[in-house]
Amino acid sequence: MICFSMIVMKQKFLISCFVAYFVVMAFASAHAKPVDFLVDVPNVYVGMSQEHFEEFYPTEISRTYRKDGDEEWITYDYTYDFAPGLEFFERYRHRAYDMVTFYFVDELLLGWALNDRAEIVREYLSEYCSQAFIHYIPKMYEAISNCMNKIPIEVFYEITDRSRPVLFTEVHYKGMARFAATSNVISFEHDPPSFEKGFTLIKLSTELGDIGTVPAIEGVIYHELAHRFLVHGGEHYIREHERDANRLVEAWGFKEELDAAKEIFGATPHAVTDADEAPSLEPSEQENLEDPQD
Hints:
Blueprint: H1 2-30, H2 50-56, E1 64-68, E2 71-77, H3 87-91, E3 99-105, E4 108-114, H4 117-128, H5 131-136, H6 138-150, H7 153-159, E5 166-171, E6 200-205, H8 207-211, H9 214-229, H10 239-252, H11 255-265, H12 283-288
Parallel strand pairs: 5-6
Antiparallel strand pairs: 1-2, 2-3, 3-4
Helix pairs in contact: 6-9, 9-10, 9-11
């Protein structure tokens, strides 16, 4: 009798687990968000409260964050330091750029996914991209999003580091805003730390959205991201940096987008000498420049 009772209880327990699993999967599916139970994370379980979750994984150590109504997404570096002792790392130790995203609804954890690049990009741009692109210049936002989704993972990982992130903002070419405009960067109480090592500000003219195609705008953005990855900049303008940036963009596999940018926006017609004076370029010299417009 005791053995029979234990078998019945075990069956009921297994049935309850299956029911709970399918309820969670159905709810997550209804919200169209990833749920990946194959990724092992210590101390984490579906249905745990966000408050309890943050006792183990505080938002202060997260990479990116996004909130939309009662839904929240938080992404962390999935490294050995983040989750020590996992067999996962014995199998995938060569993967240095893994990131895990957790999904909450009404402050309850519904699931998590490994390397959901599209979601991580949405999170990043919600923090570091001008809302003007998101709401008013969709073509430019599409180009920015495409670039962030397609650049090599090691580049993406580097330029989205919160200690020195890339920010995207607009520069207006008509109206009063072409003379002066204000951009605000606001930190909220529970935001993870940012800008400890500075930041890179990529200023994109709104004219790009008026006269350029999405691939051509991407070409311009790739060029600027290459400058950031190569750590260009400083007191003097160096023309060779433009060529280096273009070579890197082509090495990433985006020559077509770069060529589209050159065709629509032209070459960079300026350079600075060691004496920090802008030389006058002959037409033949301008034709030989291989650089898209900064």
